[in-house]
Amino acid sequence: CSFLHRVPTVPVKNLNGSSPVNPALAGITGILMSAAGLPVCLTRPPKLVLHPPPVSKSEIKSIPGVSNTSRKTTKKQAKKGKTPEEVLKKYLQKVRHPPDEDCTICMERLTAPSGYKGLHPTVKPDLVGKLSRCGHIYHVYCLVAMYNSGNKDGSLQCPTCKTIYGVKTGTQPPGKMEYHLIPHSLPGHPDCKTIRIIYSIPPGIQVLKLLLVAWDRRLIFAIGTSSTTGESDTVIWNEVHHKTEFGSNLTGHGYPDANYLDNVLAELAAQGISEDNAAQEKD
Q1: In this model, does residue 13 exceed pLDDT 60?
Q2: What's the DSSP call for residue 227?
Q3: What's the burial of 126, exposed, middle or buried (CB within 10 Å: 0-12/13-18/19+)?
Q4: Which of 97, 147, 200, 212 has the highest CB neighbour number within 10 Å of its CB?
């Protein structure tokens, strides 16, 4: 023991710092070091720690200066009453004498009509506009087409320099964001607590749970007149739409349908079924 304390221990560390020591390399190194009379000490890279230790509800605290501890989002609808032309008018200046250069949307010359083939009868194909802040110039026809292919939220983003006009929103599905303090410190900050953020976005399985509640409440079907056959006093869907096509969407009751889960949640809410009251009923 005393000999080992006096002779320095040379560790064999992982060469790239990201994966366990290669067994062959470690073995060869150990043999060489043993031959030199040095003790061998193999070290492992630190373990990946993704989650903090368990925290009880009583230990979770609100963040000073931040109201509440959670925030929910719902799907924002496009602003009604605003046509693409009305939206763009706020951000554009007319260009009476356009430069002889390409429109970077359709790649046609600005001095010629737009090369885009969409239908915008209220916009002339040869009309040219300049974005007010960044100064980039495009066919107005092309900007309308670009706006219609996006989120239609009243904002516009320059395709050249990415300058944003208005308030940009995305296609993030409805969900919940929770934020609070937990009594654990992060490496390098031993005197501080940690702000933990939890994002919860309900997938299809949670919609299924709400449909089970609707079934128990006898709200999936009703007795009435069929809109497809005209038969009266028969079983019909009760305003909670289901997908009945598996591999096609010929009737509109199949996939793809990016808005289906949002629509079903709204229809269930109209029947008095949401995550909140369903949880209360379970309790």
Answers
A1: no
A2: T
A3: middle
A4: 147
